[in-house]
Write a structure and sequence with these properties.
The chain has 79 residues and is mainly alpha-helical. The chain has four helices and no strands. The longest helix has 21 residues. The chain is globular, with a radius of gyration of 14 Å. The termini are far apart.
Length: 79
């Protein structure tokens, strides 16, 4: 269902996709930028969710890998 909604909503809509990435990045910056403990918890949670949710699902794995790479590229360019 989530993948279906993703395909319907943002597969061909780069502006919406950019907006989602921007919102996630802003939440990250607001929430954990200057808090190492929260950053560690956040990273651990993301890793656990990744392992549980997409470990054996190539479609989601490609989506998550793309989002993580895009967020990393934006974050590195801005810091």
């Amino acid at each position: 269902m989530v993948l279906g909604l993703y395909n319907i909503w943002v597969k061909n809509n780069k502006e919406v996709f950019k907006m989602i990435i921007k919102e996630v990045l802003e939440l990250y910056n607001i929430w954990v930028k200057n808090n190492n403990i929260m950053e560690n918890i956040y990273q651990y949670m993301v890793l656990e969710l990744y392992n549980i949710w997409v470990k054996n699902n190539n479609e989601f794995k490609r989506l998550i890998d793309y989002i993580v790479l895009a967020l990393y590229n934006i974050w590195v360019k801005n810091n």
